[in-house]
Specification:
It holds the Pfam family LacI. Keywords: DNA-binding, Repressor, Transcription, Transcription regulation. This is LacI family DNA-binding transcriptional regulator. It comes from Mobiluncus mulieris. The chain is α/β, with parallel strands linked by helices. It has three domains: 43 residues, lambda repressor-like DNA-binding domains (434 Repressor (Amino-terminal Domain)), CATH 1.10.260.40; 124 residues, Response regulator (Rossmann fold, 3-Layer(aba) Sandwich), CATH 3.40.50; 125 residues, Response regulator (Rossmann fold, 3-Layer(aba) Sandwich). The protein is built from 13 helices and 13 strands. Strands 7-6-8-9-10-12-13 form a seven-stranded mixed β-sheet, sandwiched between helices. Strands 2-1-3-4-5-11 form a six-stranded parallel β-sheet, with helices on both faces. Helix 12 links the parallel strand 9 and strand 10. Helix 1 packs across helix 2, helix 1 crosses helix 3 and helix 8 runs parallel beside helix 9. The C terminus is likely disordered.
């Protein structure tokens, strides 16, 4: 016979209502009590009846997560971070791939809403459709990593200026005089902001800079660096994302150029393969885990009706300098 919340309550010596509120992530229950209830539920083999819970509370306990493109290592890591946080909160996830396509993203969100998700974590892809803007009016939504144009929703972004300032000091110390910036599309807030920040910062320190705008795909990075090399070889290439960097590395290798020796690279996004296999690359760590944690906390409060006007939260990025040798050195 399946374990009931009455048995969990008896095991812990608490009221049934306390168990129920803990299992439903009610903010009226302390974290300590909730953790005890969740631990007992796991130990006793309790399984939530999702349909019964939804009928009784009007909540499904399911959060929708739609990322820019799941094949992008940054978004794969973001989805993983969100999933770990959801497990801590005993929430279930429905994860969808926006494919960096506004219409695909609209369809994915629409399907999730048909499944009665309680809230949505979203990395906007390009210029959002009017339908998507209407969707997020109907459901608690947090935009993460990118802002959602034309929508009044909670937002969690990285604050990159301090890390870029440190990167410019590194560029100056190394004596780099020419640079190529390969940015993401201007239809995403992150792509446009990073392009402007990198290009202007390089010019401010007197570095000759060329900028190439592309998409968040590996092959796009390879094509952009090939185009840049037809003119000349820069001292350093600065990439707006790790997936672009992957293509740039491949493109440099095709031209017989060595990363860190013939051409330096700096990039946004600390993803595992980049740090472990390419220690010669400077990385701006946008703190994926921290952004995911804040976004989940906000969404949980928004679902519980405990917030007023939409929030804007930022997480300060950090520069990791190339290793000489060993693990990356974190700037003070």
């Amino acid at each position: 016979m399946a374990t009931t919340i009455r048995e969990i309550a008896k095991e812990l010596g608490v009221n049934i209502s306390t168990v129920s509120r803990s299992l439903n992530n009610s903010p009226s229950v302390s974290a300590q009590t909730r953790d005890k209830v969740l631990e007992a539920a796991r130990r006793l083999g309790y399984r939530r009846d999702a349909r019964a819970t939804a009928l009784r509370t009007g909540k499904s306990g399911i959060i929708g997560v739609v990322v820019g493109d799941i094949v992008n290592p940054f978004f794969a890591q973001l989805a993983d971070s969100i999933e770990k946080k959801a497990q801590d909160l005993d929430l279930r996830l429905m994860i969808g791939n926006g494919g960096e396509d506004p219409h695909q993203q609209e369809q994915v969100v629409g399907t999730m809403m048909e499944h009665q998700i309680d809230g949505l974590l979203l990395t906007p892809a390009g210029t959002p459709t009017n339908t998507l803007r209407n969707y997020v009016k109907e459901i608690p939504t947090v935009a993460i990593d990118r802002s959602l144009a034309g929508a009044n929703v909670d937002t969690v972004l990285s604050e990159d200026s301090p890390a870029v300032d440190e990167l410019m000091k590194h560029v100056t110390r190394q004596g780099y005089r020419s640079a190529v910036v390969i940015s993401g599309p201007a239809t995403t807030s992150t792509g446009l902001n990073r392009e402007r920040l990198l290009s202007q910062s390089l010019r401010d320190i007197g570095v000759k800079t060329r900028t190439y705008r592309t998409t968040y795909h590996e092959e796009s990075g390879a094509e952009a660096i090939a185009q840049a090399l037809r003119e000349n070889t820069p001292d350093i290439v600065l990439c707006a994302s790790a997936v672009i960097t992957l293509g740039v590395i491949a493109g440099l290798h095709r031209h017989g150029l060595r990363v860190g020796e013939d051409v330096a690279i700096a990039t946004f996004d600390k993803v595992p393969w980049l740090v472990t296999t390419m220690p010669s690359i400077a990385v701006i760590d946008t703190k994926i885990d921290e952004m995911a944690d804040i976004a989940m906390q906000i969404l949980r409060q928004r679902i519980g009706g405990n917030l007023g006007r939409p929030l804007m939260k930022t997480v300060t990025s950090q520069l990791l300098l190339p290793a000489e040798p060993g693990a990356p050195h974190v700037t003070p």
